[in-house]
Write a structure and sequence with these properties.
With 210 residues, the chain is an alpha/beta fold. The chain contains eight helices and eight strands.
């Protein structure tokens, strides 16, 4: 596992992993469920299907791939997560972030992409660990639990992975069950396989570093 982390972080196949900064909500924001925050959201096509993305003034706070006929359910999930925030659809604002995330031709990332996370201290610790899994690699829930120094907390880690609010950028798709089973994925198992396959292909196409 250490070799995997080390090689991935020093190689070219890391996608945006090193170009992300993380900021957790303040205790006050957590307690007041986003009161006073303005959140803009939009729905956009991506290489892996339509996605709902939301931004606060501090960064990306939500990203989920849409299953057929589940748009209202995803919007409601966003509202529950940021219950007292002011939500407004603004696809013009979110479209440039989507291009940046998925490395489309007009993407021009010159600064770290900020993420604004709302979760418990344990959840954020797990999500930060997921960011360190190199593109093209996979780990088990047990691996992640060991990495954060909680080897007996596999179930809690699995729960935190399932609650990941920012798909793809926080790569929960790179975590599978110990026996090699892909397991569940909020965006659908087929999409999880597609993302992993694409990342593996990009890794194989990357030039070697000497």
């Amino acid at each position: 596992m250490e070799v995997s982390y080390e090689s991935g972080l020093s190689g070219p196949a890391r996608l945006h992993d090193l170009f992300i900064s993380v900021e957790g909500v303040t205790p006050g924001e957590y307690k007041h469920k986003g009161a006073g925050l303005k959140i803009s959201y939009g729905i956009h096509p991506t290489p892996f299907g339509e996605a709902l993305i939301a931004l606060s003034d501090k960064g990306v706070c939500h990203l989920s791939f849409l299953q057929p006929k589940e748009l209202e359910q995803e919007q409601e999930m966003l509202r529950r997560k940021w219950e007292f925030a002011q939500l407004a659809e603004n696809s013009g604002l979110t479209s440039s972030i989507v291009r940046q995330i998925f490395d489309l031709p007009s993407s021009n990332q010159s600064a770290p992409l900020p993420l604004h996370l709302k979760g418990t201290n344990f959840q954020i610790k797990v999500w930060e660990a997921l960011l360190k899994i190199p593109s093209g690699s996979i780990l088990s829930y047990e691996d992640v639990a060991a990495f954060i120094g909680k080897p007996k907390a596999t179930r809690a880690v699995a729960s935190a992975v399932a609650q990941n609010p920012i798909a793809y950028l926080i790569p929960c798709h790179r975590v599978i069950q110990k026996m090699g089973v892909f397991g569940q994925y909020h965006g659908g198992r087929a999409r999880k396989k597609a993302i992993l396959g694409w990342e593996a292909a990009q890794k194989d196409l990357s030039p070697s570093i000497h």
